[in-house]
Structure formats: C-alpha cells, structure tokens
C-alpha cells in the first residue's frame, strides 16, 4: 500500500517512503563556502536539515582575503564572520544559535576567545563548550568553532 507515502524506484525495486521521510530527505540542504577543500575532504560548510543548521568547524581565515591572522582574537572574529555567512545562506541568523563548541590550541588564549564570543554573541548565549586541543589541521590555526542553530518559530 503506497497511499501513505511515495514509491521510489531504486535499482529496479520500488521502495515505499513515508511522507515524513520524504520531507526529511527534501529538507536537507548542503551549504558551501565555495572552498575546493570541501569536496576534497568530503564535507559541507553547513547542512540545513529541517529547522536545524549544523555549521562545520570553522577556522579563522579572513573570508575575503583568505589570510589567517596571527592574533587569536582576530581568528575568532573571522570564524564568526564565516559562520554568520553560512547561517544566512541557510536562512538562519546568529540569534538562532543554540550550541557552540570552541577548540583552542592554547588554554592561555581562552580569555581572548571568550572576549570575542561575548562581543559577538551578547544575549544569544548558546550552550557552549571550550576545549584545549593539541593541534588543529595547520599549526598556525589557533581556534576552530562549530555551531548548531535552530530556527525560531514565531
């Protein structure tokens, strides 16, 4: 009985999918920053799935010049610029953030990262975790931020 869903042909076989499964499949959208590294590494800058947007770990390269500043605070500001852009491309805004994870290569930089987080996130205040890690992908990377947003309903 396919009256409750949709019949999909796959490999010569029919697969019945429910309406909710079809909505889930159709609501998933990949957001790209245009970086060729996304295809090489097999990831998306962000994935929108229903009312959620999951933004991949984002490092501090300037989104315009593609230069990585030495200062951890500037790297953190750049992370948020790229994150804000990915969220906007997915139909979200920074106010939709519900979760943030910060990876920092030197615990001595926590205060500088916290300061930028406070300036940027203000009253948004997502649930957050900060971790000191031994390294990121390149040694000059000092901070990486990943976030989750949930679309707010009126």
Distance between the termini: 37 Å
**Beta strand count:** 8
Q: Helix count, per DSSP?
A: 4
Class from secondary-structure proportions: alpha+beta
Helix content: 25-40%
Query: What general outline do the C-alpha atoms trace?
Result: globular
Largest sheet: 6 strands, mixed
- Seen as an oligomer or otherwise, the chain set is single chain
Cα Rg: 19 Å
Order of helices and strands: EEHEHEEHEHEE
Strand order of the largest sheet: 3-4-5-8-6-7
Poorly predicted regions are: 1-5
Explain the overall architecture.
24% of the residues are buried. Helix content is 29%, strand content 32%. Strand 4 (46-49) and strand 5 form a beta hairpin. The chain has helices at residues 19-27, 36-41, 72-89, 110-121, and strands at residues 5-10, 13-18, 28-31, 46-49, 52-59, 97-104, 127-132, 143-150. It is globular, with a radius of gyration of 19 Å. The protein contains 4 helices and 8 strands; from the N terminus they run ββαβαββαβαββ. Helix 3 runs parallel beside helix 4. With 154 residues, it is of the alpha+beta class. The two termini are 37 Å apart. The model is unreliable at 1-5 (pLDDT under 50). The strands form 2 sheets. It has a 6-stranded mixed sheet.
